[in-house]
Design brief:
The chain has 369 residues and is an alpha/beta fold. The protein has 13 helices and 15 strands. β5, α5 and β6 form a beta-alpha-beta unit. α1 packs across α3. It is globular and about 55 Å long. The relative contact order is 0.17. Bound molecules: 2-succinylbenzoate and magnesium ion.
Amino acid sequence: MMKLERVELLEIRLPLVAFFETSFGRTTNRRIVLVRAQSDGLTGWGEVTCGEQPFYNYETPETAWHILRDFLIPWTLPQQWNAASELAPRFRPIRGHNMAKAALEDAVWDIEAQSKGISIAKLLGGTLREIPCGVSIGIQDRVEDLLEKIERELAAGYQRIKVKIKPGWDVAILKEIRSRFPSIKLMADANSAYSLADVSHLREFDQFDLMMIEQPLSWDDLIDHAELQRELKTSICLDESIHSADDARKAIEIRAGKIINIKLGRVGGHTSAREVHDVCRAAQVPVWCGGMLESGIGRAHNIAMSSLPGFTLPGDVSASRRYWKEDIIRPEVTVTPQGTIRVPEAPGLGYTPDLDRIERLTVRKESFT
Ligand code: OSB
Ligand code: MG
């Protein structure tokens, strides 16, 4: 049995080494809410992976703080737990707010793994010892900047390149990339920038031999994606629209896409992520791990999740140095020249949070007992 004695919320500020731009906007400084949970001498960490504004989904650091402080933490503190997997069912009465839920649940996974002396990856049932990595490259001011970045990431060994697209930064840009890099593994992420009215435009993407196009249509849609998939040769990958194993089942049933991106925060934590993985694996739908510009803590959880056997495609989990001058974990996440990350085998997260650095970066803190 485990019982949490204390939970802390911390908000840190972390400037990105370079701006990151998607179809919904540009980020330069991250505001990240961390959860630190304590049980029986062990400390577990989780990260709220939402954006600063409600543009990817509706969560923000403020909504997550509210849901954690007023509901999730007070519900969790008085309870006794056999396993981290018991939290998700108890959180179910709260509709949505998956990123807030995930941060607390994942901290408890960290504690449970430590208490058993094994890695989170192993506790989850992960089998991959090394995970294949790709990069996500944002919209740039100039095409030349994008081509240069692609060149650099390929030289570092990354196995596939994902570029962010939006109307006005799509077909012409993909044409330039393909003429310079004819045979790389390439994909595009639209973050919901198109609608079914754009079908004939989106059909032009078929000429670029993309691995997939990610979330072309509305952030909460499945039906229109199914319609679009019938019109395209290119596989659709769903990101924003999938919040649970049930969503994945429905998406697969109506053929809304052929690939699913799993994000721990978006689906509500490790328990739900593993369920989404299992549904996809049973249906032979490949999955890969998405990213939300995480600090080392969220990044380490992503690595653990990516060790599950269905994560067959390169994910968006990449080296700390692509995002931060200095990360908040030790060692930082590094990528091999083959474009892989070795899954750590040490107990828990497998990386050590740098407490002094976290303290210096903290702008807000609240403790609960
Ligand atoms: O849609 O995958 C996305 C970043 C912020 C919000 C949404 C997305 C992304 C990324 C970056 O693509 C992935 C990463 O490198 O963390
Ligand atoms: Mg995406």
